[in-house]
Amino acid sequence: MIKARQRGSVIVVTLWTIILLTILITVIAGQIRLSSRAALYHQEELDDWAAVISAINQGEMELMLERMPRPPESLDDLDEINRNPLFKFNGQLLELNYPAREGIAVRIYDHAGKINLREISRPRMRALLEKLLGEDADTEIDELIAAWGDWVDLNNNAGINGAEEEYYESLDNPFIPRNGKLETVEEILHIRGFDEVFADIDLDAAFTLYTDEELINLNLATFEAMQLLPGLDDELIGEILAFRQNNEFRGNGDIAQIVPAENMAELRPWLNSRRTSNFYTILAYKKQVSEEYPFDDGELMEVDVSSTAFAEIVSVSSATSRPTILKVNPYQNIPIRPVIRIDEEFPE
User: Fold this and answer.
1) Spans of all domains in the chain
2) Which of 49, 57, 62 is nearest to 96 (CA)?
3) Longest alpha-carbon distance in the chain
4) What mean pLDDT do residues 280-285 have?
5) For the residues 28-40, what does the mean pLDDT come to?
6) Is the pLDDT of residue 345 over 60?
7) Which fold has domain 117-201?
8) Model-level pTM?
9) Which end of the chain is less congested by CB atoms within 10 angstroms, N or C?
10) Residue 344: per-residue pLDDT
11) What is the CA radius of gyration of the chain?
12) How far does the chain reach from its first CA to its final CA, in angstroms?
């Protein structure tokens, strides 16, 4: 009887040992699988990161290549001769001469398509504010313009309805005003009242500090910049984007075919349809594609829904020198990329 009990105890202990070992092996196997999966994901992220950085470099090369003389065989293509190849740097999805890895998107924005906050005059700033706030908000606009003027002037004397050091040092988080031209586009949010007016605007997409004049080229303009321009609404912007898919604006006459005369009177002082700049934002990112119904008739299309990208702002001096990097942002918001249906009215 005692031996039977002992054998029973040994069997129970053995069974418990087997169960515990099984649990231990299962836990270890689970941890190994988790570690392997984490290592795989980490490797995929590293591969994607390397592909994005490579695409940025390929974007730099694209900017240099477009400044080189055209090869003789391309001179037989009248479309190539008549169209400015630099106008493709308007944020459209690019097919590079040195292709990026499949699934990696590259977009390049010429800063001639953005509003210059360092060169903008008070009348033009007033026009932007009237577009955002309405012409009836004269008192508020006057105060904003006065605050703007005090921020960018070179002295610390507050103008009528303006704001200088005394005002900014009285804030909960005090600071000293610039008293000079802006150093970043985000700086505009520090000026009294502008944080509310520009709260919902993608500043990097709409504005620049790097060009040397006020005028903007609609062949290159971002959606966000055009939304701020007097005389344009979203419907007209859509028509402009559709036109420039296969055409280019060579002057105000081409723009007037789309923009009504009354709107054109407001818009004309802002335009230079031939200018380009030497300053660009290069965006590279892994595309995230979603199937959506972007048109009223229910047409299904693949839409790029990516929200952030690795970005470089560069200055290009020649076809033989690598662009100079001015700013890097690994998580920059991607400007609006509306899905545009090509209108038959604007044939290729």
Assistant:
1) 1-114+211-348, 117-201
2) 62
3) 111
4) 98
5) 73
6) no
7) Ribonucleotide Reductase Protein R1; domain 1 (1.10.40)
8) 0.84
9) N
10) 47
11) 29
12) 100
